[in-house]
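Database export, one record per block. Field names are fixed; values are copied verbatim from the stored entry.
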Amino acid sequence: MAKEIKKTTGGHTSPFERIKRTNDANNEYWESRDLADVLEYTQYRNFEAVIEKAKLACFNSGHRIDDHFADISKMVEIGSGAIREIKVMLLSRYACYLVIQNADPNKEIVAQGQTYFAIQTRRQELADARGEDERRVLLRGEIRRHNVQLADAAKGAGVIEPIDYAIFQNHGYMGLYGGLKQDDIHRRKGLKKSQKILDHMGSTELAANLFRATQAEEKLRRDEVKGKDAANRTHREVGAKVRQTIRELGGTMPEELPMVESIKKIETQQRKQLGKAQMPAKKKGE
């Protein structure tokens, strides 16, 4: 979270909305001392104990504390022109939600805060889910397009028969998934034979496979690879390089990522919504 801030203004009725701030990147956050005042903590040190409980809850829920709680120092005027430095913590919405959950439940304002942040957190979750759906649809479409190009590059290398192309694709998966073939991935993720792996990937896993496909195609063409064995070896090497990069970045290995709802359902829903948006409005009497 950035230190550069601007106070949000407006006629909001919620005191929690009134103290919300945004940084230059338009990311919202709350300052701990503002929140302490709203929650009627007259002694800030008592509120700090609440924050520590919230940070522990954040850690136990599997989130990075630094992503939601950020310590800063700021200079404040204390009267007669004197200025002193104070410690402030910048809190994300999720951090505020955890703080509220650990605050004094006997205070009416705490109950109001629990309702406010529960609703706002849920709204953000739904917005994030919509964003993830859009990313999945975009990436899945890109993979369809690049797989056609990859198949053409593989054909140029000598991978012509359907059975040979299936083997070629398996080598790419084996490189990226630590030796797992397509059937192995199906079983590991609990997919049925009729279900396509790519249709049940989240955006992170789709992006890894898109990178594998694009880089394998380029390498086959650039190196003028010839022969089925050489093409298979190239595809596996590229997949392994992508896997190595994920590991070096501290990411989750693709075989460990969860199976998600079929992208076909999302695409169907989007087509329906698009159709409704394009339907002309009915005139009176029609």
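Remark 1: The chain has two domains: 5-104, 129-267.
Remark 2: Strands lie at 5-7, 21-23, 28-31, 69-79, 82-91.
End of record.
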